[in-house]
């Protein structure tokens, strides 16, 4: 038996060894390694060789995925946690950061924003056509008319980008004087997820999702007459900056968007010559030195590039923002004055208004039987109309009321249709309140708010023979009030740096019409056979490219403006009140929104062209900001690529000194029950304004909440020439309030023509 026991022992050891090897391989993940470029040993003549040697010192098997040289210095590679820790201690290594996975944040807007009058707004010396907007997203469907280059001159001589080819993407056919560049980045994605399945998506810049085509055409698409989705929203579709050029960088795939690819794309976009970067994607919140988008954006800003990002779709919860670095323009979403009403008419004669983009055969005018999905299922979650949960014998020929949540809104319609249902009413629950987003359903369907949904359910449960029908109202414009802040739009306060108010502003992001991919239907579902030139979708993904295009518009009018000046102009001219009075509403609450919802307010492009004054910001300002956060030398170098920079120990750094166009003031609550008390705390912020208009005198006015006192010194600033700078200090004083208290106000400087406005946000913690 001894030989047999020995054999069994050897087999057991082999099994355990194999398991250990598999486990070790499974633990490997992609890390981004930030290097101090200036510390390269003299033995190396090229940084890539040094990076490779550093990697080889901890792993013989690992290979460099990307080397970064423009928005970051360093490389990415697959490593085990132990190898990553070992690499952190190698000479010249600033930091080793695990890769993050990011997700996408998913016609009439030019008129709504006042850009239909653009010809009278733009200076004769406009250089808008020299600006290239780089869009990092899912790629592009280049055949769409939004990329027509008619009327555009030669590609700017400074442009260095290329049109990368794939088996379904030919450079000669795809790129032109409008779409000047197209690249794809998949190495990081494939290192984590395996090879791209080319039966499902193209390993090229081609967009099989639709999101990237929608965002890039929103930012800088050419004017396309007679645009519509299935007859809805008919009119001329145009981007925010019709004369700017577009370059696409495909970084998002079926399994997500990976930070190693995003950083490589930002690196190449700056090298190519983009003047604006647009990123409608985001991940979780983290310190700036661990956030690849923040790092890439910092060094883009340092090279004069404006970076705008979506705020996220995690609202209306508090502190749900993405992309909160102060050098990024963080964009939330609001509605426009256009809607697509669809009316639920009940058997008792009552009717309720919803929204829909359904365009097929209408329901009969006489009501059909109505059933609640929760009563037509054996599943515990059948009320949500999940796949396979509805009983055909219960729903056949009936209108089915489904609750919103968990699965996609349009998928619920497929479930109802496949079970034999005649139509669908999609009812919001408390999670979505009164927010309505229109969808191009494949069966007669409408979405209604929570209140209407509850009323319909009440009828349905009380009437022994409930009936309903749905009538479709087409496109309606002039809807008021508008804008309102979308419930899905992510909110502040800023959890990374509470003293920086985010989001920065809001822009149109609900029911936006723009170009669409030819490989997927308007619902994005595989079962949707329809193909459309345009689509209507919603999200901060849609609001972000509005601001990106407007940034290109401003850069064209003012090519000498810094990214900080562009951002300031957009923020200080944004509006927080409706023209007739009253604050912009929050659809989630039905009450006036706050700066934690909309930042400085809703973007106003005509006013942004001539802001009067701006709060400018430089790289040095942001370095001081990082010092104020008590970042170490290595952490600052990871963000800024400045390995020789150190904070001055003799200097008193303060986040409140950052020359930001908004104010976030955090007071500490007094100790004791409730946190109340009579002791007054005073916090001072210093700001500097730069004149970008005619000479004039500006006077300050403050709207302060009763909880705080605000004093501006001096309260009057005179400017004799363009480019002149003047500083002022604001003292904020307040007694202690219960922890969690928030209050808001507004500071405005005006010369009688211009209003340079900043929101004030106060918190007690």
Descriptive overview:
This protein is of the alpha/beta class. It has four domains: 29-98, Alpha-Beta Plaits, CATH 3.30.70; 109-336 and 483-606, Rossmann fold (3-Layer(aba) Sandwich), CATH 3.40.50.200; 341-474, Glucose Oxidase, domain 1; 613-617 and 659-764, Immunoglobulin-like (Sandwich). The protein is 23% helix and 27% strand. The strands form ten sheets. It has a seven-stranded parallel beta sheet, sandwiched between helices. A seven-stranded mixed beta sheet has the order 19-18-24-20-21-22-23, sandwiched between helices. A five-stranded mixed beta sheet has the order 32-39-38-34-36, with no helix packed on it. It is globular, with a radius of gyration of 28 Å. The N and C termini lie far apart (73 Å). Residues 6-26 have low confidence and may be disordered.
Q: What keyword list fits this structure?
A:
765 residues; alpha/beta; Alpha-Beta Plaits; Rossmann fold; Glucose Oxidase, domain 1; 4 domains; 7-stranded mixed sheet; 27% strand
Beta percentage is: 25-35%
Mean pLDDT: 92
Low-confidence stretches: 6-26
* CATH homologous superfamily placement of the largest domain: Peptidase S8/S53 domain
Discrete helix count: 18
Based on the coordinates given, report the CATH architecture of the largest domain. Answer: 3-Layer(aba) Sandwich
What structural category arises from helix and sheet content? alpha/beta
Could you say what the CATH topology of the largest domain is called?
Rossmann fold
In which order are the strands of the major sheet placed?
7-10-6-13-15-16-27
Biggest sheet layout? 7 strands, parallel
Helix content: 10-25%
């Amino acid at each position: 038996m001894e030989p047999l026991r020995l054999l069994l022992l050897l087999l057991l050891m082999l099994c355990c060894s194999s398991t250990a090897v598999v486990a070790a391989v499974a633990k490997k993940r992609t890390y981004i390694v930030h290097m101090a470029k200036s510390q390269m040993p003299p033995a190396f003549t090229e940084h890539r060789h040094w990076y490779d040697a550093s990697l080889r010192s901890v792993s013989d098997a690992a290979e460099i995925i990307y080397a970064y040289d423009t928005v970051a210095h360093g490389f990415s590679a697959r490593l085990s946690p132990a190898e990553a820790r070992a690499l952190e201690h190698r000479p010249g290594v600033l930091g080793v950061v695990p890769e993050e996975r990011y997700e996408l944040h998913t016609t009439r807007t030019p008129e709504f924003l006042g850009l239909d009058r653009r010809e009278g707004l733009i200076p004769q010396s406009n250089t808008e056509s020299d600006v290239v907007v780089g869009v990092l997203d899912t790629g592009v469907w280049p055949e769409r008319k939004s990329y027509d280059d008619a009327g555009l001159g030669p590609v700017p001589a400074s442009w260095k980008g290329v049109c990368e080819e794939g088996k379904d993407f030919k450079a000669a056919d795809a790129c032109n004087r409008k779409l000047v560049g197209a690249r794809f980045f998949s190495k990081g994605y494939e290192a984590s997820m395996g090879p791209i399945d080319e039966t499902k998506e193209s390993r090229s810049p081609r967009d099989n999702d639709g999101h990237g085509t929608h965002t890039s055409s929103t930012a800088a698409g050419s004017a396309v007459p007679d645009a519509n989705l299935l007859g809805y929203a008919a009119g001329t579709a145009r981007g925010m900056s019709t004369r700017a050029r577009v370059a696409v960088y495909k970084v998002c795939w079926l399994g997500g968007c990976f930070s190693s690819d995003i950083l490589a794309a930002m690196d190449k976009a700056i090298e190519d010559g983009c003047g604006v970067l647009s990123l409608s994607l985001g991940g979780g919140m983290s310190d700036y030195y661990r956030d690849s988008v923040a790092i890439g954006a910092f060094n883009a800003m340092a090279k004069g590039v404006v970076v705008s990002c979506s705020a996220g779709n995690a609202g209306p919860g508090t502190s749900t923002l993405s992309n909160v670095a102060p050098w990024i323009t963080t964009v939330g979403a609001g509605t426009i004055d256009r809607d697509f009403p669809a009316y639920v008419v009940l058997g008792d004669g009552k009717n309720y208004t919803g929204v829909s983009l359904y365009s097929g055969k209408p329901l009969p005018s006489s009501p059909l039987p109505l059933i609640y999905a929760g009563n037509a299922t054996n599943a515990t979650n059948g009320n949500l109309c999940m796949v396979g949960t509805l009983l055909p014998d219960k729903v056949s020929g009936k209108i089915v009321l489904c609750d919103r949540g968990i699965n996609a809104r349009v998928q619920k319609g497929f479930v109802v249709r496949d079970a034999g249902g005649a139509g669908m009413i999609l009812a919001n629950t408390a999670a979505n309140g009164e927010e309505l987003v229109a969808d191009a359903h494949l069966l007669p369907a409408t979405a209604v708010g929570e209140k209407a949904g509850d009323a319909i359910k009440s009828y349905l449960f009380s009437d022994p023979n409930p009936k309903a029908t749905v009538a479709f109202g087409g496109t309606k414009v002039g809807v008021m009030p508008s804008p309102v802040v979308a419930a899905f739009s992510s909110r502040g306060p800023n959890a990374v740096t509470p003293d920086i108010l985010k989001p920065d502003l809001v822009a149109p992001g609900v029911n936006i019409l723009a170009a669409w991919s030819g490989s997927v239907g308007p619902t994005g579902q595989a079962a949707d056979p329809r193909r459309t030139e345009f689509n209507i979708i919603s999200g901060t993904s849609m609001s972000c490219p509005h601001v990106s295009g407007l940034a290109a518009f401003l850069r064209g009018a003012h090519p000498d403006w810094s990214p900080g000046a562009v951002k300031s102009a957009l923020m200080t001219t944004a509006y927080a009140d409706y023209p007739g009075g009253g604050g912009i509403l929050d659809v989630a609450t039905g009450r006036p929104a706050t700066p934690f919802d909309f930042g400085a307010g809703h973007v106003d492009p005509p006013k942004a062209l001539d802001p009067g004054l701006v709060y400018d910001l430089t790289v040095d300002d942001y370095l001081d900001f990082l010092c104020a956060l008590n970042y170490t030398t290595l952490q600052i170098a990871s963000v800024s690529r400045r390995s020789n920079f150190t904070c001055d120990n003799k200097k008193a750094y303060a986040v409140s000194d950052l020359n930001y166009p908004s104010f976030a003031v955090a007071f500490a609550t007094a100790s004791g029950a409730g946190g109340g008390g009579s002791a007054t705390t005073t916090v001072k912020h210093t700001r500097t304004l730069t004149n970008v208009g005619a000479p004039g005198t500006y006077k300050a006015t403050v709207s302060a909440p009763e909880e705080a006192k605000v004093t501006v010194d001096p309260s009057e600033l005179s400017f004799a020439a363009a480019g002149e700078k003047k500083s002022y200090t604001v003292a904020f004083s307040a007694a202690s309030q219960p922890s969690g208290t928030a209050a808001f106000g507004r500071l405005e400087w005006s010369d009688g023509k211009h209003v340079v406005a900043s929101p004030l946000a106060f918190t007690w913690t």
